[in-house]
Amino acid sequence: MSFQTTDSKKEEFRKYLEKSGVIDQLTRVLVGLYEEPEKPSNAIDFVKRYLGSPADIDVETLRSEYEALKERNSYLEREVAELKDEVTKLRGE
C-alpha cells in the first residue's frame, strides 16, 4: 500500500514540475550544457548563468542586508506614525 502512495506522490510531483515548466527549462539547460563545445569547469555556475542567476552573489550578505533594511523600515514606519500623531495633536484634531 505504501508503495502505491509513494508512486502516486512521485507522479503528482512530476506532473507539477511539468505543468509549471520546470522540466522544459531544465531540459533546455542540460541541452545547452551538452551542446557547449568547451565544457565549463563548474557545471552548476553554467546552469545558474543559463537560468539568469548571477553566479557571484553572496547569499548570506544579501540576507543580512535584507534583515538590516527590514529593521530600518520598521523603525521608520514607527517614526512616521509618531510624527503623524504629533502633527494631529498640534492641529488640535
UniProtKB/TrEMBL annotation:
Keywords: Coiled coil, Nucleus. One of its GO terms (molecular function) is transcription coactivator activity. Residues 59-93 form a coiled coil. Gene3D superfamilies: 6.10.250.1060. GO terms for cellular component: nucleus. It is found in: Nucleus. Its main location: nucleus. PANTHER family: ASSOCIATE OF C-MYC AMY-1, C-MYC-BINDING PROTEIN. Belongs to the AMY1 family. This is c-Myc-binding protein. It comes from Stentor coeruleus.
